[in-house]
TrEMBL record:
One of its GO terms (biological process) is cobalamin metabolic process. The lineage of its organism: Eukaryota, Metazoa, Chordata, Craniata, Vertebrata. Residues 1-22 are annotated as: Disordered. It holds the Pfam family Cob_adeno_trans. This is Corrinoid adenosyltransferase MMAB. It comes from the Eukaryota. The keyword Transferase applies.
């Protein structure tokens, strides 16, 4: 018999962290987990649009989604209640941050210099990547207070910060590859 997807354990408004601690669903840990899940979904959508265009960076987006699972594991393991075994299992290293920086540098070298504020645009792939970037910034804003409170690894916040930069550069790259114009901010006449 297949296991049921529903457990009913959250019906009273509480959920469990990886450490087994029960917290209200409105706890900032679950806010950060939700934002990270939304980010992975947004990146999945951007990846589907980009896959239709045959972009090779789709493999990188899939790798990012896998890393976001590790981000979630770290967030779901509040350091205040984590045993050493929990911490070891959900630690987050600097290596994925450095990898993002390499990707950013590689795509940036191929782009024209920025001369104006770019509005989310440039075709479906680009717009979806810009949307992912905005969701990433929200996820980062949810994670930073956890890091500041000593509940999550600082590398998690750094990863999200770098990821938003990567998504921005990738959105510009996709627009360039498709020959789509990036719309720029124009100050309205008074």
């Amino acid at each position: 018999r297949a296991p049921r997807i529903y457990t009913r354990t959250g019906d009273s408004g509480f959920s469990s962290t990886f450490t087994g601690e029960r917290r209200p669903k409105g706890d900032r840990i679950f806010e950060a987990l939700g934002a990270t899940d939304e980010l992975s979904s947004a990146i999945g959508l951007a990846g589907e649009f980009s896959s239709e265009k045959g972009y090779t960076f789709v493999d990188q987006l899939h790798k990012v989604q896998c890393m976001l699972q590790d981000v979630g594991s770290n967030i779901a393991t509040p350091l205040s209640s984590a045993r050493e075994a929990h911490r070891k299992r959900t630690s987050f290293s600097e290596k994925p941050i450095l990898e993002l920086e390499q990707w950013i540098d590689s795509y940036s070298e191929q782009l024209p210099p920025l001369r104006a504020f770019i509005l989310p645009s440039g075709g479906r792939s680009s717009a979806a990547l810009h949307f992912s970037r905005a969701v990433c910034r929200r996820a980062e804003r949810c994670v930073v207070p956890l890091v500041q409170a000593g509940e999550a690894d600082p590398n998690v916040a750094k990863y999200l910060n770098r990821l938003s930069d990567y998504l921005f550069v990738l959105a510009r790259y996709a627009a360039m590859k498709e020959g789509k114009e990036e719309k720029i901010y124009i100050k309205p006449e008074p």
